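=== RUN LOG ===
request id: a7f3
mode: sequence -> structure
chains: 1
length: 217
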Amino acid sequence: MPSIKIPKKSTDTDMTPFVDIAFLILSFFIMATKFKPPDPVEIKTPGSVLSQKMPESNAVLISIDSSNKVYFSILSEKDPSKFDNVINEINDKQKLGLTPAQISNFRKTYMVGVPFTGLKQLLDIDAKEQGNVKQPGIPVMDSTNNQLTWWIQGAKNAFAGEKLVYLIKGDGNSKYPAFEAVIEALKKNEEFKYSLVTSLDDIPVGSALDLELKRAK
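=== RESULT ===
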């Protein structure tokens, strides 16, 4: 009987479609990912062995640098309109006369560290350039003019009915009076719970936490 010859087919796979898909996926993640802007002020926080993820939304971040200047930030990635609510309340109560462009720029302003009299000038600067501006800090040391109280009140009203986390990020070289003034601003708004932002240190060998984690394993 004559033998039947089966035609040989190439086993090579054309990878071009797979490469195209990989680049499409990569392009999607690059365009969809939102990176945290660099801090305009360098703050070296003290260390801690406990770790908890810092919230990215529904949070107020109060920063204290090494020279005891105080800064205010809102973390709200889910609802940018919260920024509008805060700045509109500040504008109305302090009668600042902010323009629509300045109010709109507040959405992109990562950190405020100026007195109310300097807010118009800060919001006239493009948000990308604000990191190059040395801000004098929010006045907090005078108990009769602790302006941080108004910022916290504005955030509290903007997030009314929602859980709002208060974070205090203090430099290791900052002094206690500045921290005390921040706490007083929170107390005036009847806010008594807050979290401290620290750097993560290694757990000391033989400590109670180290032994507890070893037992859990």
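=== NOTES ===
DSSP finds seven helices and six strands in the chain.
The longest strand covers residues 57-64.
=== END ===
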